[in-house]
Design a protein that fits this description.
globular, two-stranded antiparallel ribbon, disordered N terminus, alpha+beta, twelve-stranded mixed beta sheet, Rossmann fold
Length: 392
Amino acid sequence: MEYSKMCLIQVALIIFLIVVFEICPQFAFAGSPVEYLPGFEGPLPFQLETGYIGVGEDEVQLFYYFIKSQSNPKVDPLIYWFTGGPGCSPLNAILFELGPVELDIRAYNGSLPTLSLNPYAYTKVANMIFVDLPVGSGYSYATTQKANHSDDLQSGDHANEFLRKGYILGNPVTFSGQDYYKIPFAHGMGLIPDELYKSLVTNCGGEYKHNGSTKSLCSRDMRTFDWLIKDIYQYHILESPCDPVSYDSRRSLSENVQNLKSPAAYPGVKCREEWHELSVIWANDKNVRDALHVRKGTTGAWERCRSNLSFAIIVNNTIPYHANLSRKGFRSLIYSGDHDMVIPFISTQAWIKSLNYSISDDWKPWIIDGQVAGYTRSYSNQMTFATVKARN
């Protein structure tokens, strides 16, 4: 299995658990309040605290961001957010997805990226703790060479210190065979014709991969499939892929960042990989690291997803873990963007169906501002599946 796929599998492991439980009156962290954020004008209209949590006999120092709910923090739920990868920092989620501020991706002019308020932040209604996990992610670090190495089970053990009542998974890769669902997803979305889909089903027998023989009928069909989707941005099929002149995955991180800071890249940024590079520029600014109280000399350059993480893959199928948590009475919400071809929502539906739980609340839309935002289905094991319309 190629490295990118190996990384994706980790998303569904315990590392990625977003754990939700009622906030306790005695809840507190011995962190430091963040008074300002470089790139944001004026005082912060929310409470942010950062610090380190020692785990594994304190040999591992996990960096966290605690953001207090902007509504009623004493009664609002507390959400712990762990990002997968492995090795991806939840700062990406804060700045691009659900935090109280977001990077101004269209206004970039080569200086320090600016920030604005996110009107759809989770922190509007929930307290949130974002944790750099496993060790080596984001600003987290180890105090011994041995502690630098981790695996999915050890990271799950560290995360278990937070696990209590329930969890949420977003676009999870849960078992190693989920690549199978790319073909039916592409067909359902109109990316490949009926004839090719039927031929793939017949000639590949459910194993949608190049089987080594370039002359086989399956390999012929797979080459056609690969050609048809080569210009599709697979993480969100409605978005445009990056222009290789401005962004090239084969270039080093620093090369892409320097290219983005070139005047030729202005005005703004043009694709998602370039958006992500803005977070690299922002998070590595000395003033930003000082404002966030990052300990000096503990980590090198911040990376959105750590490229040299010492991490072992042990678990490739987490479906039994979901079944076990369901038996223990844990509530769960599993959601998928309906335009993600890397982790198609139909693959998530498939493993949920394999649990054989009866449906307690059948397929129905959920509404935001009078518009359908997706669909939900709930099961007797207190699991709810949701799609998010036009998202990855």
